[in-house]
Amino acid sequence: MEKIVTKINTTYADGIPVELPDIENRLRSFWLNIARDSGKTVMRASTMNLIVIHSEREKYDNYQKILIDLSGHHPGRIVHVFIDYGSQSDKVFAAVSALCKMPGSDDRQICCEQVVIKTGSSGEKHISGAVIPLMLPALPVYVVLTDPRFMRSKALNSLYEITDKVIFDFFFKNNLQSAFKNMVKLSHGTAVGDIVWSYLSAWRDAIVPLFDGAAGKKYRDGIRKLKISCTDPNECYWVYLMAGWIISRFGWRFNADQNNFTLKREKNSSIELSVAREKPAAIKFETYENISLSSVLEDDRFISLIRQGNSILFEQPKSIHRPDVSLLLCDELDDTSTLPVYRESLIAASKIYEVIGEIY
């Protein structure tokens, strides 16, 4: 018989253990002790409420480092949540700690407070009730999700209702169609951001030159086919999101007949839309003049090409730059709105899956 795990893994690094009802009192005394023991001027800064929710221990540990870097730019009350789906425990563990940046020339140390909350799969229903009372009033509430399963969790709905912005920071292991629908659904109720979208800025920059200038406009108007190819679900998210960006940017519409996989442009001419399970991950266009335009994901770079038969008319590689997650989070936390271009791309990407269906 399979052993049922009923314990939550905790470490001293999580902070000082505390009972849920005593968190606020413990934080007040905690700050007094920090000021007394450090012998320095300690600034308790709060510009936001940030909730980060994980289901994998590795991501939780990685974010501990990210949050320390983030605290210097966006200090606030941080609630760091770990839901262990490998445990069926419903017990909730809580701890408090401070995230501090080293003092500057004025000898002042800027600190923000962190509350760690951990539970098992059966305790997920307690998370909203434990977190919402901890929110500091009159400050924006941000939620970072590192697992797409959290989007469909009914236990977290009340948390999303008080949230100013939800930030996605995950890749997909399966069921991409469901994930897209949940992302779009969540975006209707609150602002959303996406760390992967920020990574993809290099790919967007690589595609733009394909359609620059008079020649680029001619290519765009002459497109008759759009083909999307991918194999790995992680890459497919990238490719479909990019295809959604192209469709929304060009103002193409989906054919009302879902059995006819075509797109419509302004003059009502059709563009054939297809997907393929093949490597490398790519977005490819074909024109009526037998010119192909493509942007391919290859190792650590994107390669954009324009070909006519065997002749290469244009080639441009673009390295994938992966900025530190803390920097990308800073950008997301600077704005409580959804980028219109991202929302449009997300909706179009979801529509591609709705029309074509799963390819796995």
Distance between the termini: 32 Å
How much of the polypeptide forms β-strand, as a percent range?
Answer: 25-35%
Instruction: Please state the average pLDDT score.
Output: 85
**How many strands, which pairing sense, and closed or not: the largest β-sheet?**
9 strands, mixed
CATH architecture of the largest domain: 2-Layer Sandwich
| Overall SS class | alpha/beta
Rg is 24 Å
| Order of helix and strand elements from N to C terminus | EHEEHEEEHEHEHEHHHEHEEEEEEEHH
Global outline: elongated
**Counted beta strands:** 17
For the record, the CATH class of the largest domain is: Alpha Beta
Layout of helices and strands:
Layout (H helix, E strand, L loop, with lengths): L15 E2 L5 H16 L2 E4 L4 E6 L2 H15 L5 E8 L8 E8 L7 E13 L6 H5 L9 E5 L11 H5 L3 E4 L7 H14 L1 E4 H5 L1 H7 L5 H9 L1 E7 L3 H18 L2 E2 L7 E3 L5 E7 L5 E6 L3 E8 L2 E8 L2 E9 L5 H9 L6 H17 L4
Parallel strand pairs: 2-6, 3-4, 3-7, 4-6, 7-8, 8-9, 10-13
Antiparallel strand pairs: 1-5, 5-6, 10-14, 11-12, 12-13, 14-15, 15-16, 16-17
Structure description:
It is a single chain. With 360 residues, this protein is α/β, with parallel strands linked by helices. It folds into two domains: 12-163; 199-356, Dihydrodipicolinate Reductase, domain 2, CATH 3.30.360. It is 33% helix and 29% strand. The protein is built from eleven helices and 17 strands. The strands form two sheets. Strands 1, 2, 3, 4, 5, 6, 7, 8 and 9 form a nine-stranded mixed β-sheet that branches. Strands 11-12-13-10-14-15-16-17 form an eight-stranded mixed β-sheet. A hairpin with a 7-residue loop joins strand 5 (93-100) and strand 6. Helix 5 (176-189) packs antiparallel against helix 11 (340-356) and helix 9 (233-250) packs across helix 11. It is elongated, with a radius of gyration of 24 Å. It starts with 15 loop residues before the first strand and ends with a helix. The model is unreliable at 1-12 (pLDDT under 50).
